Amino acid sequence: MKFIIAKKIGMSQVFAQDGTVIPVTVLQAGPLTVTQVKTVENDGYQAVQVGFGSKKAKHTTKPMQGHLKDLGLFSVIKEFRTTDTYERGQKLTVEQFTAGESVDATGVSIGRGFAGVVKRHGFHGSPATHGHKDQLRMPGSLASKRQGPVAKGKRMGGHMGVDRVTIKNLTVVEIDTANNILKVKGAVPGATGAIVTVKTSK
């Protein structure tokens, strides 16, 4: 499994050879540094821990400084379950990906605050006339009188966004190894500057 941690720069477009416009998300992907290799013998499972970005010592706990003392301090540390072989201090870059392959992008969606049912769930609302008053964007009935309490999971207004979202099977369009840039077709979850995890699709 190939993976990398990236920072979302924004959206752009790439022109194919036939002139077709391809909307892409530009990601500052890596480089990653392997900070720990976990094994079944020592940890009960096999995984690799990697660091991305940079961080000041005053913003890092003493235990974490000791854990990373010979590698530098990282703003993001994540763990990936994998059976591949890695070594502590190894660098991972965008060179491992190739144009045309499919990847899954995971990030935290943009927060929308408290949203109603029309925006949050796509309700169509009520008619604007014929006896309706102040009901245009309301959800309507929540339950029957005989039923009693409102059923769990009922779609209502509430906090929208800030959810962990995975977009699957995005196509890698371009790779810039010199600047660690990865361009994938379509949109990726999160605001500009958000941290995104990119993995090869299963």
Provide a descriptive summary of the structure in words:
By secondary structure, the protein is mainly beta. The protein folds into two domains: 3-116 and 167-200, Translation factors (Elongation Factor Tu (Ef-tu), domain 3), CATH 2.40.30.10; 117-160, no CATH class. It contains three helices and twelve strands. It has helices at 40-43, 62-67, 117-121; strands at residues 3-15, 21-29, 32-38, 47-52, 76-81, 91-92, 102-108, 113-115, 158-160, 164-176, 181-185, 195-200. The strands form three sheets. The chain has a six-stranded antiparallel β-barrel. A four-stranded antiparallel beta sheet has the order 5-4-3-6. Strands 8-9 form a two-stranded antiparallel ribbon. β1 (3-15) and β2 form a beta hairpin. It is extended, with a radius of gyration of 23 Å. The mean pLDDT is 94.
Q: What would a concise description of this structure say?
A:
With 202 residues, the chain is mainly beta. The protein has helices at 40-43, 62-67, 117-121; strands at residues 3-15, 21-29, 32-38, 47-52, 76-81, 91-92, 102-108, 113-115, 158-160, 164-176, 181-185, 195-200. The chain has three helices and twelve strands.
